[in-house]
Write a structure and sequence with these properties.
The longest helix is centred in the first third of the chain and has 32 residues, at 23-54. The two termini are 40 Å apart. By secondary structure, this protein is mostly helical. It is built from 19 helices and no strands.
């Protein structure tokens, strides 16, 4: 087979195209991409408004934490509820709330009624919706493709997310700088409407509701906790993902301060920093999609977090905006991989009836961890500036990788095997 044939086979037979053959996944992924662009419009607008209203690193972190607070408090209950109900019906209803809050942001900014407290309240309300919305989105993907196509599907979804992280912040920064934050919020609603339409027309392949009668919400939560505690791989991988996200990703929530206070580039600089991360993220997630295997994801997770830490140290060492943009491109690559390789491991290993509870906890690492880190780093920036706290987080990331290295082989055996087959010990006795 010549080199061109190998590339063609990788792209169209072994990699991303395996996931794209499935109609419902394709519709979900593309409309979710439009909604993600809308989310970035909204996040950039909220972050910039928080900075414009206060010029405080603490408030940047505080608004990020307020949005993530419902995740911290209610996520385990959300996971248990998601495992009980029709997930598709619930997310359709939640999308209506997302659109309503989008309209509220447009109205308050257009009428010049916004202040930091109202902004925080809206962020909290959006966070409450996301407590259910995010884990449902994560649980839907495995129900739209066969298990054998799960790795390219998850990674392709991530590639779209990172392309949205490129286009969304860049366009949002341009719109805010040249028009207004109100116009920016209005464009976000278009993406939310597109995703709502997509959710209406898809039909998942299978139903992962609990097979037995539920005995109560608290009992369902405790069942999920016991399941994770008994499992030899889920807990360590979730903890690794949470620590890594809490220490490495807060710099994105603090990016308005870096753009304005460190690099003196304003809203457009803020958009460019996040867009540079998105460019790298597209590359990282696409490479992960075309890798197309669960095997090796544990080592990939560790290597990607170590790379993220090193590029963060480079990013925090400079006041040169263009060098910082280059660092952000490489950060996008490593963040795109370090975020999704653990997700692939979790999706592969978890029992379908427990998927909502486990992936809701992954959602906690994805949003609440960085927000908690942003509050701590943002508060510390009052005394040390923005660069030193972020650099300290990068050093702790390297420490985390070193601690996990001795455990990587055991975790790889448990998390990367084919979970449709019986465990190794059981297979030997049958």
């Amino acid at each position: 087979m010549n080199y061109a044939s190998k590339i063609r086979a990788q792209l169209f037979e072994k990699g991303i195209a395996r996931a794209l053959k499935h109609r419902d996944f394709l519709i979900f992924a593309l409309t979710n991409w439009l909604a993600t662009i809308g989310n970035w419009f909204q996040r950039v607008g909220i972050g910039w408004l928080a900075w414009e209203l206060t010029h405080s690193g603490f408030w940047l972190g505080a608004v990020a934490l307020v949005e993530a607070l419902p995740l911290l408090v209610f996520i385990v209950f959300a996971g248990a509820i998601i495992d009980r109900v029709d997930r598709l019906r619930l997310i359709r209803q939640l999308q209506i709330l997302v659109i309503v809050f989008g309209i509220l942001l447009v109205s308050l900014t257009a009428l010049d009624l916004m202040n930091i407290y109202l902004l925080s309240l809206i962020a909290f309300s959006l966070g409450m919706v996301q407590t259910f919305h995010l884990p449902i989105r994560l649980t839907l993907v495995p129900n739209l493709v066969p298990r054998g196509d799960l790795t390219p599907a998850v990674a392709f979804n991530s590639a779209l997310y990172n392309s949205a992280r490129f286009f969304g912040p860049a366009l949002a920064g341009f719109i805010i700088a040249n028009f207004s934050v109100t116009v920016n919020f209005a464009f976000a609603i278009v993406g939310f409407i597109a995703f709502t339409i997509g959710l209406i027309v898809i039909n998942p392949r299978n139903d992962e509701h609990q097979s037995k009668k539920s005995i109560g919400l608290i009992a369902d939560v405790m069942e999920g906790v016991r399941y994770i505690a008994r499992h030899s791989g889920l807990g360590p991988v979730l903890l690794f993902a949470f620590i890594g996200a809490s220490l490495s990703r807060p710099f994105m929530d603090l990016a308005p301060g870096f753009a304005d206070d460190v690099f003196h580039r304003g809203a457009e600089g803020f958009g460019l920093l996040l867009s540079a991360i998105g460019i790298g993220g597209i590359g990282g997630a696409t490479a992960l999609a075309n890798y197309g295997k669960t095997q090796g994801q544990m080592n990939i997770s560790l290597g990607a977090l170590a790379g993220t830490a090193l590029f963060l140290l480079a990013f925090t060492s400079t006041q040169n905006f263009w060098f910082a943009l280059i660092c952000c491109v490489f950060l996008g690559v490593t963040l795109g991989v370090s975020t999704n390789a653990p997700q692939i491991l979790l999706q592969n290993a978890v029992d379908g009836a427990m998927r909502g509870r486990v992936m809701s906890l992954y959602g906690l690492t994805y949003r609440a961890g960085p927000a908690l880190g942003a509050l701590i780093m943002g508060g510390a920036s009052t005394y040390f500036g923005l660069q030193i706290p972020v650099a300290a987080g990068a050093i702790l990331c390297l420490v985390t990788v070193l601690i996990m290295l001795p455990k990587r082989k055991r975790l790889a055996v448990e998390m990367e095997r084919d979970h449709t087959a019986p465990p190794i010990e059981e297979a030997k006795t049958t």
